[in-house]
Design a protein that fits this description.
The protein is of the alpha/beta class. The chain folds into 3 domains: 8-51, lambda repressor-like DNA-binding domains (434 Repressor (Amino-terminal Domain)), CATH 1.10.260.40; 63-164 and 298-326, Response regulator (Rossmann fold, 3-Layer(aba) Sandwich); 166-296, Response regulator (Rossmann fold), CATH 3.40.50. The protein is built from 13 helices and 12 strands. The protein has helices at residues 8-15, 19-26, 34-46, 53-60, 76-91, 105-117, 135-142, 166-179, 195-210, 228-240, 252-264, 282-286, 298-314, and strands at residues 65-70, 95-100, 122-125, 147-150, 161-164, 185-189, 220-222, 246-249, 274-276, 293-295, 323-326, 329-331. The strands form 3 sheets. The protein has a 6-stranded parallel beta sheet, sandwiched between helices. The protein has a 4-stranded parallel beta sheet with strand order 7-6-8-9, with helices on both faces. Helix 9 links the parallel strand 6 and strand 7 (220-222). Helix 1 (8-15) crosses helix 3. It is elongated.
């Protein structure tokens, strides 16, 4: 037997049988005699034969691999999404390739091209906050490769989507602050080009409108970075102005940054300014005061996204354009609860 990687041709040659017989024997095909099957498997074991999965995938035109694009790796919500995707995928015989764009449009384009060239069976994608052009995703549709958007989605491309009810979530958060007696409620969110931020802001506006409350441009902040440092700098003047008594932040880190500035100015939370966040990060439970927030079903989102992509793979002749909307939950804690 030759040195190096052993192929089924080598096994066939040593046993003086056909390549197709070796292939069938390794697959436990009942048409192959038991003695031949046993001989093939013993020789394969002896020489540590490993199947060439690349060749197999080329023949079957399927790799049993899903790609997932996420904006951030170090993010509790996306960690839950990945867990949901992986659990569903592995239970159905698929592997998962993960790529993080770090919220960069350029990285997103590179990552999607890499996934495209890597012969994945389908892609699950959450667009970055910099993205406004979607040609790199259109290529998947043009090639007939299954595509599912989740969380931050693109309505310009016809593909299944999994989202949360961001509008109702924003409405719930603002309505809760109103119910706690707040009259002057600020909004701190992310880039308004993202649909999730438009919807959260829209829910906030609806709640204030129903309550007959006014807002001011100075009380509305669209933070480009959506992170703690951005929240600290962007909410500093707002807190110093002493005009607000309530604040809804579209992420927990923005909320915690605002609370940091509130404390620095000598105000109390929630007595002077009540605060509601969004995402239900673990830090919000241990922070002082504990953070009222909107809980996102990340694991369920991942499961549903993986289910939709595999459904497309299994039914290539069916056109799918489902939009699955998941509900959220208001978790009331100390940062907004007034006696």
């Amino acid at each position: 037997m030759k040195k190096g990687n052993i192929t089924i041709k080598d096994i066939a040659r040593e046993l003086n049988i056909s390549v197709s017989t070796v292939s069938r024997a390794l697959a436990d095909n009942p048409l192959v005699k038991p003695a031949t099957r046993e001989a093939v498997k013993e020789l394969a074991k002896k020489y540590h034969y490993k199947p060439n999965f690349t060749a197999l995938s080329l023949r079957s035109n399927k790799t049993n691999t899903l790609g997932i694009i996420i904006p951030e790796l170090v993010h509790e919500f996306f960690s839950l999404v990945i867990r949901g995707v992986e659990d569903f995928a592995y239970a159905n015989g698929y592997n998962v390739l993960i790529s993080s764009t770090h919220e960069s449009y350029e990285r997103e384009v590179i990552d999607t091209k890499t996934m495209l060239n890597g012969r994945i069976d389908g892609l699950l994608a959450c667009i970055s906050k910099e993205t406004s052009d979607y040609d790199h995703f259109k290529e998947f549709v043009d090639r007939g490769i299954p595509l599912v958007f989740y969380d931050c989605i693109c309505n310009e491309i016809k593909a299944p989507k999994v989202v949360i009810d961001d509008f109702n979530a924003g409405y719930m958060a603002a309505k809760h602050l109103i119910d706690q007696g707040c009259k002057n409620i600020a909004y701190v969110g992310g880039p308004i080009n993202l649909l999730i931020n438009k919807n959260r802001f829209g829910g906030y506006q609806k709640a204030l409108s129903e309550a007959g409350l006014n807002t001011h441009d100075d009380w509305i902040i669209h933070c480009k970075t959506m992170d703690y440092e951005g929240g600290l700098s962007d909410t500093k003047d707002l807190i110093k102005s002493k005009q607000i008594d309530g604040l809804f932040a579209a992420t927990d880190m923005l909320a915690i940054a605002a609370i940091k500035n509130i404390k620095a100015e000598g105000f109390r939370v929630p007595e002077d300014i009540a605060v509601v966040g969004f995402s239900n990060w673990t830090i919000g439970q241990v922070y002082e005061p504990s953070l009222t927030t909107i809980s996102q079903p990340g694991y369920e989102m991942g499961q549903k996204a993986a289910e939709l992509i595999i459904k497309q793979i299994d039914n290539p002749d069916v056109e799918f354009d489902d939009t699955v909307v998941l509900n959220t939950e208001l978790l009331v804690r100390e940062s907004s609860q007034r006696d």
